[in-house]
Amino acid sequence: MRELWLCHPTPPLSVCRRIANCHKALKFLPDRQILPQGLSSPFLEYLAPRSTLAPPYPSPLAARLFNVDGIRSVFYGPDFITITKAADANWAHIKPEVFSLITEAVNSGEQMVSTSNDKTSPAAQHGNAPDSLAYDERDSEVVAMIKELLETRIRPAIQDDGGDVDYCGFENGKVLLKLRGACRTCDSSTVTLKNGIESMLMHYVGPKQFQTRPSNPLTLKL
């Protein structure tokens, strides 16, 4: 059962949600689009303060959020923001300031993410590449089935929990995935894979056996 924390009675920021089984993350739901137009990826993830200032997608809001003591990552989905804290940080101390910063940015109409034309510097954010689940005519039939399953059945559930999933390849009978956002550091990531992704892949794609390793990227052995 989801735990909802009412943060504001009306839009633009109506609710923040504590992610089930993941005490380190909060998901905020602003009543607006988060990602910039034209971005081919469904997410952007900032894992360090300097990544919020670097090209190709600097974010002034993410930079201010990292100034809050205890914040470890800022994740932008299409219409949500997930904040992950350090294990020893207390939400009672962090949440009011985080909520205030996000509310101020939403109310002011501030652009959450900027686009830099600097093509010489390496990308500092995760998620700046094209969507890994997008259709590719070069994919084999099995890879196409895996991607479709991840896109239609797995991704919506993971996004609902404040994260996303990256397809990293299918090699020697292994499906390579990376969990993003709240799911990246969630203690129940392995359980999520075992009970959700593995069972669906076994049912729809037809593997007979899986073996999960709690690494990043996560390896599912067919």
Question: Can you offer a commentary on this structure?
Answer:
This protein has a 6-stranded antiparallel beta sheet, with helices on one face. The two termini are about 30 Å apart. Helix 3 (about 140-160) runs antiparallel to helix 4 (about 190-205). Mean pLDDT is about 80; it is low at about 1-10 and about 210-215. The chain contains 4 helices and 10 strands; from the N terminus they run ββββαββααββαββ. It is about 25% helix and about 25% strand. Strand 2 (about 15-20) and strand 3 (about 25-30) form a beta hairpin. The protein has about 220 residues and is an alpha+beta fold.
Task: Spell out the blueprint of helices and strands.
Elements lengths: L2 E4 L6 E6 L6 E6 L13 E3 L13 H7 L4 E6 L4 E5 L5 H18 L32 H20 L2 E9 L2 E8 L7 H16 L7 E2 L4 E4 L1
Helix pairs in contact: 3-4
Summed up:
With 222 residues, the chain is an alpha+beta fold. It is 27% helix and 24% strand.
List descriptors:
222 residues, 24% strand, 6-stranded antiparallel β-sheet
- Structural class determined from secondary elements: alpha+beta
Order of secondary-structure elements: EEEEHEEHHEEHEE
Q: Quick check: average pLDDT?
A: 82
Low-confidence stretches: 1-10, 208-215
Distance between the termini: 31 Å
What is the CA-based Rg, rounded?
18 Å
The portion of residues forming beta strands comes to: 15-25%
